[in-house]
């Protein structure tokens, strides 16, 4: 039978279950990546498992998120991660080496392999033809220990690309078009598989821009075939031996098929405050801009920054615009320095930031109050940039560069008046220098793990009680992201200090949440969160489950959940329960809810009855949990479950 590329790679890695869309499967993980913000907890969890060395083919520990070092917390975490990598067999990518996804694509990603990363944009690797999936840190720790990764066998959507992009329109506009078609909710359990003649016209970094932002649609991963273009990229990275040709079989059957004619695309823009809020850029043209930020794991490749440098050659940034550029990796930065492009950017007034997440995660470069920021990154959630009143728009590097000059949102096609569209060729050879990777120690027994005062124990939960006797501590709407649940930015330095970090749960929506939650907990009441559709979008940060767990949250009742967050809730012993629309509308913040026979009903796979004591009503709630997940939930989370099994 003809197979999709997704089926081929998943089947070749299957260790539990059968390839049957909708059913839980377990796959072998070849490579893992972690980054410092999620990686410290992930490493603590790995340590708690007592395994002497990682069991993957390759595990890389990147430091790219918390590099601001305004205090001892970040550098302490970095040192902890460095000693962990040395002792347990991971490659350590030092701060300054670049953003994990960009660097991984350059130096390690390989067609046909599986990659699990503790970051939601791990699917960037799909641009090279690998199955690359984002997950919570605990799932990555399990994979590092040699355990399978469990996922729902996906439904595969084919996105057939025809034609060729017009000038001034680029890969970012393709994925924004995909977001316009599919939206940022309702795609859980799907994979986007790209096919068609148009694929050949896109380089690997362009494909990676597209697979990167599949995360914003909520798909499990996105994947491109591995073809001659892939081979050229790997050759230019001196890794041609990693190449294998891979594609779907002729006649493979997909769950759904969509065609995008690249020749008909035009510049697109995602408007505040969700990447799914896509419009044609021409609809918002002329809006004055205060800040332009170019970089992030979506758009900071050599090609992206070269386009910007060429467009800005001989021009100076508009007086009202603060212009920031963060090259994605040290490789990119050094190539720009070598060929003079860095000087063109500096001459245009660019503030060159470190090759790191930086502005994208909101730990620097916050816009002014009520400001408008135009960014090439992938997320524009409320407050993520560091300024709650600011409006963030997401665009291509071409559109960002155009606004640097004009000071307003500008269709980059209007640059036709001044110049030809710059033609940026992939270099024959990228500049290869792996000296900022540190290999694992040959004498691991001699390595002592460094632990600064910011590093605590990974918290463990109690088993699920038979009765949840709780209060709706907060009721929120649709598309609540993990950035709403637990902010990153300047708060991110507390990732290794859960009691402190928990003070910021729901900070952007309701800064008093943690006070109410702690008071309920002291009174012996459980906390319950009520959410709308697509609860837990965005980041994979498991702190969006750990910190609520710490505050005594036992259940989240929502209309629907996003994949990674739902898995994280189960991993930390919080029940993700599904509510219907009418019941969601009925429940209010402060309502007292009771769920009896939790354990017995979950064991039996029966629906749960929620009694609303305040309203004198009851509702039926359901759940989508595999038998394995039920056991984990009842045990109080994965760590307790593993201890129990051992
Ligand atoms: C993000 O883009 O939101 C992050 C920061 O990279 C997160 C990871 C984190 O919160 O540490 C992600 O995408 O998973
Ligand atoms: Fe870093 Fe931003 Fe990419 Fe997250 S989305 S990995 S914060 S660059």
Secondary-structure blueprint of this entry?
Elements: H1 5-12, E1 14-16, E2 24-27, E3 31-35, H2 36-48, E4 58-62, H3 73-88, E5 91-93, H4 100-107, E6 114-117, E7 131-134, H5 137-144, E8 149-152, E9 155-162, H6 171-182, E10 190-195, H7 204-212, H8 214-217, E11 221-223, H9 228-236, E12 256-261, E13 268-270, E14 278-280, E15 291-294, H10 302-312, E16 322-325, H11 330-339, H12 341-347, E17 351-352, E18 372-375, E19 391-394, H13 397-406, E20 437-438, E21 468-475, H14 482-485, H15 498-501, H16 513-522, E22 526-531, H17 543-550, E23 553-558, H18 563-571, E24 575-578, H19 581-586, E25 592-595, H20 598-604, E26 608-612, E27 617-621, H21 627-635, H22 638-645
Parallel strand pairs: 3-4, 3-6, 4-5, 6-7, 9-10, 9-12, 10-11, 15-16, 15-18, 16-17, 18-19, 21-22, 22-23, 23-24
Antiparallel strand pairs: 1-2, 2-8, 5-20, 13-14, 21-25, 25-26, 26-27
Helix pairs in contact: 2-3, 2-5, 6-7, 10-12, 10-13, 21-22
This protein binds alpha-methylisocitric acid and iron/sulfur cluster (SF4).
Iron/sulfur cluster is lined by residues 65, 99, 119, 121, 296-297, 357, 360-361, 377-378.
Which descriptors apply to this entry?
646 residues; binds alpha-methylisocitric acid; 6-stranded mixed β-sheet; Aconitase, domain 3; 3 domains; 22 helices; binds iron/sulfur cluster; alpha/beta; Aconitase, domain 4; 29% helix; 7-stranded mixed β-sheet
Fold and architecture overview:
The protein has 646 residues and is of the alpha/beta class. The chain has 3 domains: 260 residues, 2-Layer Sandwich (Aconitase, domain 3); 132 residues, Aconitase, domain 3, CATH 3.30.499; 178 residues, Aconitase, domain 4, CATH 3.20.19.10. 29% of the residues lie in helices and 18% in strands. The chain contains 22 helices and 27 strands. The strands form 6 sheets. A 7-stranded mixed β-sheet has the order 24-23-22-21-25-26-27. Strands 7-6-3-4-5-20 form a 6-stranded mixed β-sheet. The longest helix has 16 residues. The protein starts with a helix and ends with a helix. Bound molecules: alpha-methylisocitric acid and iron/sulfur cluster. Iron/sulfur cluster binds next to loops.
